[in-house]
Every structure is written in structure tokens, then in C-alpha cells.
Amino acid sequence: MTIPERVPAALTAHPAVKAVELAGSRAEGRATELSDWDFLVATDHFEDIVADLPGLVAELEPLAQQWDRLSPSWCYMLILRGPVKVDLIFPDEPHLDDPPWRPDRENLAALDAHFWDWTLWLSSKVASGKDELVAGELAKLGVKVPRDLENEVAPALTR
Question: Partners of 88 in the beta sheet?
């Protein structure tokens, strides 16, 4: 089964899920190889599905899964092998930004997952020529990180 078949099949097993619809660049035929798979999830009992999502998506074997801290609506983010980024968007459920991370022993894995999700998302925007968007996102960090160290170490890691 393909991603557009597997994701809805996993979610519609839950009685609170009314519909799952492919959206975004994949639905519109303008996706790049790195583009994420956006699915709009309709439910009339959001609170009933929240705790069940990890179990519902388990059959997809996610390497990472967590709620997006910055989405204007609730969004459950997955990274599958490939890598494949999947966003389960609940458009009728407003979400306020969570406070900035305060790294500690308990949230290091979540921070790592969020970093790789964001990196994959940024890379998909580079692949689709959205350089201004990428520059704007990087500017939000408030600091410019020199790439010299990365450029020296990264090639050695792929040998």
C-alpha cells in the first residue's frame, strides 16, 4: 500500500475520525521528492482521538512522532523511513504556539525529532525553490550559524 492509502486506513479505524483527505503539494501535483504528505483529518471528537493517535499510527512504524508546537491548528507530525514526512492536520482545532523548548534530559528525544522534522521540511522548501521562505525561517532563529564546521565534518561521516 502507498502512503495515500496507508495513512487514511490507519486513522479511519478510529470511530472519532470522520474523514482523512490528502492536501497540500502532494494533492495539488506540485510536490518534490522531499515534500511532506499533508492529510486533513476531520473529527467531531478531537479529544477522543488525541490519546489514541500513537497507537493508530504504530502500523506506519514512525521513527518520530509528536505534536507540532508551532502550527496554528493541531498537527501530529510523523517521520517514516525513506525519509517520509507526514502531517496529520486537524484544521478545525485551533492551536496556540507552545513556549520555546527548555532542553533537559526528559525532552531531548522530542527536541531531536522536532529538529529533524524541521530540517526535512526546510529541505523540501529548498527543493521547491522557496529560498525566501527558508531564509525567513532561518532568520527566526536570531543567530547565524557558520557552516564551516558542518562542511568539514559532514563529508567524513558519509564515507
Answer: 39, 76
